[in-house]
Structure formats: C-alpha cells, structure tokens
Specification:
The chain is α+β, with helices and mostly antiparallel strands. It has helices spanning 2-20, 155-163, and strands spanning 24-31, 36-41, 47-53, 60-67, 73-80, 95-98, 103-106, 110-112, 115-118, 126-129, 132-135, 145-153. A hairpin with a 4-residue loop joins strand 6 (95-98) and strand 7.
Length: 164
C-alpha cells in the first residue's frame, strides 16, 4: 500500500516537473506592465517579420528578424515604400536597394538584446511567422508596451496561451 502511494506521488511529481519545465523555444510577446505571456508563437525557421503602418509617411514598413545561434533577436533588414522621417539611414556595411515595389536596407545584422514595442493606435502592428500573421491589436490594447523575446517555454505556458 505504501509502495503504491509513493509510486503515485512520484508520478505526480514527474508530471508537474514536465509540465512546468521550459523545453520549447518560442517567440514570446509579453505585456511589460504585468509581465504575462500574452502571445507565444512558433518560429520554425527562426525568422519573423514585424510590419506596421508608418505614422508619418503612412506607408507599410516591414522589419525582418532572425534568431542567431545565441538565441538573440537580430534585425536583418527593413523594407519600405517611401523614404521619410523615422526611416533609418544605411550604415557602413549595409546596402540600400531600390526596386519597382520597395526600398530596402539590408545586411543590417543588428543584435537587439531587448526588443520593445508600443502597440500602435493606427499602425496595425503584425508579427508574421512563416505563413501565420498575428495582429497585435487583437491581444494588446493600443499604447501597450510589449517585450518580444525568443526563449524556452513550458507545456503549461503553451496550454495557457492556447486557451487565451
């Protein structure tokens, strides 16, 4: 009888450990104010795009990111249709490309330790991972400060995110 009870207790402990151990690398978007995992996204190829409408020139901006071997977020390139206020200038080693459809600064390779973003009121921020587009205004109210990071999450975190 005691052996069965110990066995069941051990099973429960192992289950709890598995449930709460961070095992799955994901892109996590947290509300900075309350530090809750509001959005957890799977990033199969370790690449994602943040898109938004520029507040001054009213054109779409697309920032292309990848996750490096240290699991840091790196800004690879930015693409836009109109050059104006708030658009970065190419730095040394970066290239500026102009096509019929867009302008692009690539080879940026800027490691971003802490990627923060204020969800815009009219910017319509989206995060694209593979074919999936996540509209941030469906998860965060406008003007919410969010932190975007790539980290391991637990099965429990995934279940809570799915339920939300």
């Amino acid at each position: 009888m005691i052996k069965k009870a110990v066995f069941y207790i051990l099973i429960i402990i192992v289950f709890i450990i598995i449930l709460f151990t961070p095992l799955f690398p994901r892109l996590v978007l947290n509300n900075v104010k309350n530090n809750t995992n509001n959005v957890i996204l799977k990033v199969d190829n370790k690449k994602f795009i943040i898109s938004y409408m520029h507040s001054v020139n009213k054109s779409k901006i697309r920032d292309f990111y990848f996750i490096n071997k240290n699991n840091d977020i790196v800004l690879e390139k930015t693409r836009f249709v109109s050059y104006g206020a708030g658009i970065p200038e190419p730095k040394e080693g970066e290239s500026f490309i102009i096509s019929d459809d867009y302008m692009e600064i690539n080879n940026m390779n800027r490691t971003i330790k802490d990627l923060y973003l204020f969800v815009g009121t009219i910017a319509n921020h989206t995060v694209m991972t593979g074919d999936k587009i996540t509209e941030l205004n469906k998860f965060f109210i406008p003007k919410t400060n969010i932190k975007i990071e790539y980290k391991k999450v637990s099965i429990f975190d995934l279940i809570i995110s799915f339920v939300k």
